[in-house]
Amino acid sequence: MITVIIPVYNAEATITRALDSARAADYIICVDDGSTDKSREQIKLWQHQNSKQVIYIHQDNQGAAKARNKGIIAATSDYVMFLDSDDSLAEGVIEHFKQLRQKQPAHDVYVGHIQHMKSNKLIPIKSHTYTSGSTTLSRSPELMQSIGPGAKLYRRDILSQFDEDITFCEEHAFNIKCLMNRVFVTDKVVYYYHISTGSITQSYQNGSEYIKDAIKARQRVFDLLATSQNSQELMQYYSYRMDELIVSYLIKHVLRVEHDEKFIDDVIRYIEEMRTSTYNNQSLNQIVLFVTLYGNKSERQQLEHYIKAHHFKLKNYILHHPVKGQLFILKTRIKDKIKQLRN
Description:
The protein is of the alpha/beta class. Helix content is about 50%, strand content about 15%. The protein contains twelve helices and ten strands. Strands 1, 2, 3, 4, 5, 6, 7, 8, 9 and 10 form a ten-stranded mixed β-sheet that branches. The longest helix is centred in the C-terminal third of the chain and has 27 residues, at about 230-255. The model is unreliable at about 200 (pLDDT under 50). Its EC number is 2.4.-.-.
């Protein structure tokens, strides 16, 4: 049997869609993380209209990690899936995973593909490419491309707890632990990540706290990967995934909406964390590039001073060509603005 766990926070506009997509699950657990809208009423209405039992758990607002952990504790089935309340499962995914489990029983985690959905249009994620079949994290570092809990079926007795002391990347250590077990990859798209067309300002208003959380998450994942076969390659890949594809874009988005010397101090601490461990040079270059592109003069000088004081080299066109660099910054910002207007 399969349980779908849905953490819910102010999701009255999307929870019905999520529940519709999970209807075929044997059990559905909704953990309400202190919603102040009509999420609870929408869940109860859906339950009444569909004559299907939903286990509803309420908690004071404590974050998605705590909500997922409560769902894990409440689950009694052998297998568990996670679904965010603003996303949806692909049609037929529950039955697909059940059949897959029967055909390939000797696995602990079954991994499917994710597609983005924006304005009801599907957008493939080109970076999420895995070879289907039986594998391990050591053999397939690219499994870290899908480092969140979505698009996966987990055997419940291998699950640990999500990190409750951080709110950004809190799922990384949890998922790495799971992926260090026996994994089977299916080529089927099983999960739709719905992209909101709203402003990004609210999402990145806690930039400094997110960077601090990212440092903790990075350290915890590296501690786990250090015990694996092929640990250096795995760490390099995680650096690419975390530093280049997550943190650098966090920095970019924060600097596009606010400027704060404290935030750059935290970015420098993150760079120090990278340089004292395994890291990908290209990822470090991209972080510096984004600060140079989107930071103000004071923020750029702050970072340049740190780089010069620590005598490390970067392949950074802008730092070495001030005049041409300013033109490059201007062109990039204009392109970004045009892209924002189109979206």
